[in-house]
TrEMBL record:
Residues 6-181 form the Cytochrome b561 bacterial/Ni-hydrogenase domain. Gene3D superfamilies: Transmembrane di-heme cytochromes, Chain C (1.20.950.20). This is Cytochrome b/b6 domain-containing protein. The chain crosses the membrane at residues 12-29, 41-59, 97-115, 143-165, 198-216. InterPro entries: Cyt_b561_bac/Ni-Hgenase, Di-haem_cyt_TM, Hydrogenase_cytochrome. Signal peptide: none annotated. It is found in: Cell membrane.
Length: 219
């Protein structure tokens, strides 16, 4: 068995930062209002990470690209059958079901932080883009912003359960792979897995520009 780099450092760092920021957002969103100002800034940070990951999904390293791990319904169903039989097909990057979870989490978090930019509690805090929509739309987005955390927590729970299944049943060390970036395979791929420098720089510049713009908005 050979150790092969699958997840470059930017994927690993952004993944664990998302974990920390999402946890902080859940806590500050349901805690006392004295800490609610942190909720905004944690949301800004999470939005920048999601923006980075979305762009990096098109211009990043091989196994970070959506084109590499998003598969059709037939491939997903075949993988699910293999899971239920206890013999799923191995994948160096995201498996077909894990790929759907990646998309679901990114989409859910985007809707969450996006709706938060327009949400107001009508007392102390108002999203920086609140003045640009009608009351009807603001009401819909506020409802969405309060409902989505529970949906996201369910998705996170499913994600953790899937990781545990791979760790305990399939002996695939996904947690450590997301720390050091390497997986063990019988035959290494011919092409080295590395982050294209221009793709990484471009993704970071867009994400940082987005974060700087948000930071300048009044709340």
């Amino acid at each position: 068995m050979k150790s092969v780099l699958v997840w470059d450092w930017s994927i690993r760092v952004s993944h664990w930062l998302m974990v920390l920021l999402f946890t902080g957002l859940i806590i500050t969103g349901r805690y006392d209002r004295d800490y609610f100002d942190y909720h905004f800034y944690l949301g800004y940070g999470l939005s920048a990470l999601v923006v980075f990951r979305l762009i990096y999904g098109f211009y990043g390293s091989r196994y970070a690209r959506f084109s590499q791990f998003l598969k059709g319904p037939k491939v997903v169903l075949n993988y699910l059958k293999g899971m239920f039989n206890g013999k799923p097909k191995g994948h160096l990057g995201h498996n077909p079901v894990g790929a759907l979870m990646v998309v679901a989490l990114l989409l859910g978090m985007t809707l969450q932080w996006g709706s938060g930019l327009f949400t107001s509690d009508d007392l102390f805090w108002t999203g920086p883009l609140n003045v640009y929509l009608s009351d009807d739309w603001l009401s819909r987005l506020t409802w969405l912003h309060h409902v989505l955390p529970d949906v996201l927590l369910v998705l996170v729970g499913l994600h953790v359960a899937a990781v545990l299944y791979h760790e305990l049943c399939l002996k695939e060390r996904l947690v450590m792979a997301m720390i050091h970036g390497k997986k063990k395979v019988q035959q290494a791929p011919a092409e080295a897995i590395k982050a294209p420098r221009w793709g990484l720089i471009f993704s970071m510049l867009i994400a940082l520009s987005w974060l700087a713009w948000l930071w300048l908005l009044p709340i």
